[in-house]
Automatic annotation (TrEMBL):
A single GO cellular-component term on record: cytosol
Pfam families noted in UniProt: MTHFR_C
Domain of life: Eukaryota
PANTHER family cross-referenced by the UniProt entry: METHYLENETETRAHYDROFOLATE REDUCTASE, METHYLENETETRAHYDROFOLATE REDUCTASE (NADPH)
Protein name, as recorded: MTHFR SAM-binding regulatory domain-containing protein
Residue ranges occupied by any MTHFR SAM-binding regulatory domain in the UniProt entry: 46-239
Organism: Pichia membranifaciens
UniProt cross-references to InterPro entries, sorted A to Z: MTHFR_C (IPR053806)
GO molecular function: FAD binding; methylenetetrahydrofolate reductase [NAD(P)H] activity
GO BP field: methionine biosynthetic process; tetrahydrofolate interconversion
Length: 249
């Protein structure tokens, strides 16, 4: 999904946005280059693919872990499957579970400790992770030794063709994604702060106060949270290791 739209949907689901602030944001950001960023994905919405993990995602968000991007694991699903299928017919598709989210900085040390424990128990890096924050232009935490490595998290096998790997996780794209995410959050915080001070556009004092609280909350996401990506390399076992760890933080 388009990151700008998914971020807006997330903030809206947290009841941080009013109709007026959404209009203000659209007006502020209706630049010609904006629509060209993801021209084929502007109308894309959440799909059935996340239904199997939706309860886990909801629980994490209710517990203050703000999920941004995710996919469940699948192992050898037919390419014609109406939910997970893609590519030519007579093929099979695979996915590693991954989750990208904003985590309070105070919980990072425990998360890293639990990931390390899982990997040591399994004898290999079942879980790989990247961590960064708004003020950094590099990774602040990772257990990947070769940062040029590319981890394919979606791939497909089709008769007479090379294996297709349409979705990967790697350092460069993660850091670029980080820059875009924090830019969007900063824009939203600015729009909400301006709305909270604009009595002419928003005469209702209660709404202005809500906009101020929303702006402050988004600022806390920028300052007090880290951006984390975790990939579960064990796509065969049905267990949801990532969610199990996060629920116990």
């Amino acid at each position: 999904m388009n990151l700008e739209k998914s971020t807006t949907m997330l903030l809206d689901s947290l009841h941080l946005l009013s109709n007026q602030t959404k209009q203000d944001y659209e007006c502020e950001n209706s630049k010609p280059w904006r629509k060209s960023l993801n021209p084929s994905r502007e109308l894309e919405n959440a799909t059935e693919e996340i239904d199997s993990i939706k309860p886990d995602l909801v629980q994490l968000n209710m517990n203050g872990i703000i999920t941004i991007n995710s996919q469940p694991k699948i192992n050898g699903v037919k390419s014609t499957d109406h939910v997970f299928g893609w590519g030519p017919t007579n093929g099979y598709v695979y996915q590693k579970q991954y989750l990208e989210f904003l985590l309070p900085k105070s919980k990072l040390a425990k998360l890293v400790s639990q990931i390390t424990a899982v990997n040591e128990e399994n004898g290999y890096d079942t879980l790989n992770y990247f961590v960064t924050d708004a003020d950094s232009n590099k990774l602040s935490e990772t257990n990947i030794t070769d940062l040029s490595d590319v981890n394919a998290v979606t791939w497909g096998c089709f008769p007479g063709r090379e294996i297709a790997q349409p979705t990967i996780v790697e350092k460069v794209s993660f850091l670029a994604w980080k820059d875009e995410l924090y830019l969007i959050l900063k824009k939203w915080s600015s729009v909400l702060l301006a709305s909270s001070n604009d009595e002419e556009s928003e005469p209702d004092e209660a709404n202005r106060l809500r906009d101020l609280k929303s702006s402050n909350f988004i600022q806390s996401l920028i300052k007090d949270y880290v951006l984390v990506n975790i990939v579960d390399n064990n796509y065969i076992q049905p267990s949801d290791t990532i969610f199990h760890i996060l629920k116990n933080l």
